[in-house]
Amino acid sequence: NGILRSSLHLGDRAADRLTAGIRRTYSDSEISDLKRIDDKDGLVALSKQSMHKVPANASPQPKFVHPTAVVHPHAVIGEGVTIGPFCTVGQAVNLGNHCQLHAGSHITGNTEIGEGCVVLAGAIVGADLPGCTVIGKNNSIGYHAAVGVKCQDLKYIDGDDCFLHIGNNNDIREYASIHRSSKPADETVIGDNNLVMGSCHIAHDCKVGNRNIFANGTNLGGHVVVENYVHTGGAAGVHQFCHIGSHAFVAAGALVVQDVPMYVMVAGDRAELRGLNLEGLRRCGFSDMEVRSIRRAYQKLFMCSDENSGGLEERLVEL
Questions:
Q1: pLDDT attached to residue 300
Q2: Within a 13 Å sphere around the CA of 202, how many CA atoms are in the beta-carbon half?
Q3: What is the predicted pLDDT for the residue at 20?
Q4: Which residues are catalytic?
Q5: Domain ranges for the chain
Q6: 181 and 162 Cβ atoms separated by less than 8 Å
Q7: CA-to-CA distance for 166 and 179, rounded, in angstroms?
Q8: Strand pairing of 146-149 and 243-244?
């Protein structure tokens, strides 16, 4: 468990990462100081130096807010942020520097989005629920994706805190959905450098590590754990509470109802082992010697025909 928590970067709850500034309020005189400057493209530059402490020798880049966008005056907007037509930004939102909100995207609830993120047209990030959504740097959220919304767990109690924490450099594609946790003591966690393709679903309380690739239509049930460098084929499904080990490959259309060991391939309705993920191991830089060692362990654990070899637990002890 310690190794897994380390690999997934599980630390304090996402709520602890929100700054006090996300709830800052401004006086009427401060709000009246907001300046709107028309530019040649019909955008509006929203400029207020007091929102962020800027060094005296720095030249902060302006913010661009389209006239049709609705931005709450208490939202915290970083430098160089672009907010397109018909976007909405809620009261408790914190947008990092150089974020881009494309037309018709909506950021709501207690939501923090890190520097350099792009939210494409029609996407919804956050929800007007207790708790928070925290998204790291340089993430892309695709067209009409729903990220940080209420979970689909009937055990969720309205009014309970719920959390989503996403790391850095993730590519979340069109129509994907990623839900907050179902209870205050847990959180949904996505690590770094993951590719979540179109129409994927990551349910409440999932823990996803780093550098995973989920092909179109992959569905992770609640409380699923996916370690690192896992690939899934299109329309793969993973049952609640299952655990997918690092470097595993889940074939297209597979239905996973049991834990998947590290380094293996699984396929089929009620997925079964289909050997080692040799191509994936080579792509990740495993040496021939390391691959041979993994192959011997796999044969010892899963292909042993000796009646005297004992059960799986006994063979694990021998390894």
A1: 86
A2: 35
A3: 33
A4: 204-205, 222
A5: 2-289, 290-319
A6: yes
A7: 11
A8: unpaired
Q: What is the mean pLDDT of the chain?
A: 85
Q: Residue 54 corresponds to which tokens in the numbers above?
A: 């800027």
pLDDT digits (tens, 9 = 90+) for 110-146: 999 999 999 999 999 999 999 999 999 999 999 999 9
| Pairwise CA distance, residues 118 & 120, whole Å | 6
Pair 274, 253: CB distance under 8 Å: no
Q: Residue 163: which of 209, 190, 131, 206 has the closest Cα?
A: 131
User: CA 298 to CA 224: how far, in whole Å?
Assistant: 24
Question: How do residues 59-116 score in pLDDT, each as one tens digit?
Answer: 566 689 999 999 999 999 999 999 999 999 999 999 999 999 999 999 999 999 999 9
User: Which top CATH class is 2-289?
Assistant: mainly beta
The radius of gyration of the chain's CA atoms, rounded to the nearest angstrom, is 23
Instruction: Dump pLDDT digits (tens) for 32-52.
Output: 333 333 333 333 333 333 233
Where do we find the tokens 């928590």?
Answer: 5
Q: Give the span between the Cα atoms of 82 and 95, in whole angstroms.
A: 10
The pair of three-digit structure tokens given for residue 24, joined into one six-digit string: 């800052």
Task: Return the H-helix or E-strand segment holding 111.
Answer: strand 111-113
Q: Please return the burial class of 67, using the count of CB atoms within 10 Å of its CB with bins 0-12, 13-18 and 19+.
A: exposed
